[in-house]
Specification:
With about 325 residues, this protein is an alpha/beta fold. Helices cover about 50% and strands about 15% of the residues.
């Protein structure tokens, strides 16, 4: 069956022939083919070529550009560098810039152009996904987590809420590019910092902005997704009414319990990402089959709990995919 169809069935709550599988391959593709990771983050042709090769090699069902949680912050003036093969903020801002979207700033166009090339090659067979930074994590990347929480602790409620909402408006410009030029079928909002915030901070400061972005993605006619890695148990209940089709959950979350809360939402996950680096194929295969069983056959796409680590063993990723192809 066409891989796109498998994913669409899972998102729509149908029971697919086999469970779709979508480990989030990013800069691992550069390691896999012995190319410069730093160059791949800055060269759309190289990023696209590596992602296309890796998607075919692993036979995965959703293909993204690289995940880069510094991209939007860099475009607004934060300083970044590639450290340990990952983009990292090395200079936070001290004053809030006016968040007006400009595709010419930073590396935004690199990622859009890479996705367009990936889509041109693979969109007939696979779902094409793009990433945007969620507004709360965007705020933390601009100013640093410590400064953001100091503002929250000292009660700067109005200014923080207003600025987070502005950041969600900014991100709509990037969403438009990923859909219109990149031809994305799905946009995933990356909100890893929400697990640090907790339910009270989320409800008071971030909910309106996160919903603003997710609902805009749905209005654009593509699938909306949200990524909340780590120990997100406390906040899942507060996410369930947001406008997303897919949520990625980490291994720390009980999949069966999460599915009870997230009725009619598709869960992407949630085997332990560390297994891809530290384990062996037989164990990965068995853990993946257990995950499929817990997924219950509907509203589930098999994946790891976060992006595939750079130094994952290819045979372990293949074992994950094999498990999905062989059982419902």
């Amino acid at each position: 069956m066409n891989r796109r169809k498998l994913v669409e069935q899972a998102i729509n709550g149908e029971i697919p022939v086999n469970t779709p599988v979508a480990p989030l391959i990013g800069a691992h593709s550069a390691m896999l083919y012995r190319e410069s990771v730093k160059e791949a983050y800055r060269n759309p042709e190289l990023m696209a070529r590596l992602q296309i090769k890796a998607a075919k090699f692993y036979d995965i069902d959703i293909v993204f550009h690289y995940m880069d949680t510094t991209l939007e912050a860099e475009a607004l003036g934060a300083k970044i560098d590639i450290k340990n093969s990952l983009p990292t903020i090395v200079g936070h801002l001290t004053e809030p810039p006016e968040p007006i979207f400009n595709e010419e700033r930073g590396r935004i166009k690199i990622f859009v152009n890479a996705l367009a090339k990936i889509s041109k090659e693979l969109s007939i067979e696979k779902i094409i996904g793009g990433y945007v930074l969620g507004p709360f994590t965007f705020l933390c990347q601009l100013f640093g987590i410590a400064k953001v929480f100091r503002k929250i602790i000292y009660g700067e409620t109005s200014s923080v809420k207003t600025y987070i909402f502005k950041l969600s408006e900014y991100s709509k410009g990037y969403v438009d590019l990923l859909i219109d030029r990149g031809k994305a079928d799905l946009i995933m909002v990356l909100e890893p910092c929400l697990i640090l915030a907790g339910p009270v901070v989320f409800e008071r400061y971030a909910r309106r902005a996160v919903e603003n972005l997710l609902s805009y993605i749905k209005r654009r006619g593509v699938y909306s997704a949200i990524h909340v890695c780590g120990r997100s148990n406390r906040i899942i209940q507060h996410l369930k009414n947001l406008s997303f089709d897919v949520i990625q959950l980490d291994c720390y979350v009980d999949l069966r319990e999460a599915k009870k809360i997230l009725a009619n939402k598709c869960i992407l996950g949630n085997i332990d990402t560390r297994l891809l680096v530290n384990s062996v194929p037989d164990i990965v295969f068995n853990k993946a089959r257990e995950c499929i069983e817990r997924g219950g056959g509907r509203y589930h796409i098999l994946s790891a709990g976060c992006e595939v680590p750079l130094r994952s063993h290819p045979e372990n990723i293949k074992a994950l995919v094999k498990a999905a192809r062989g059982c419902r």
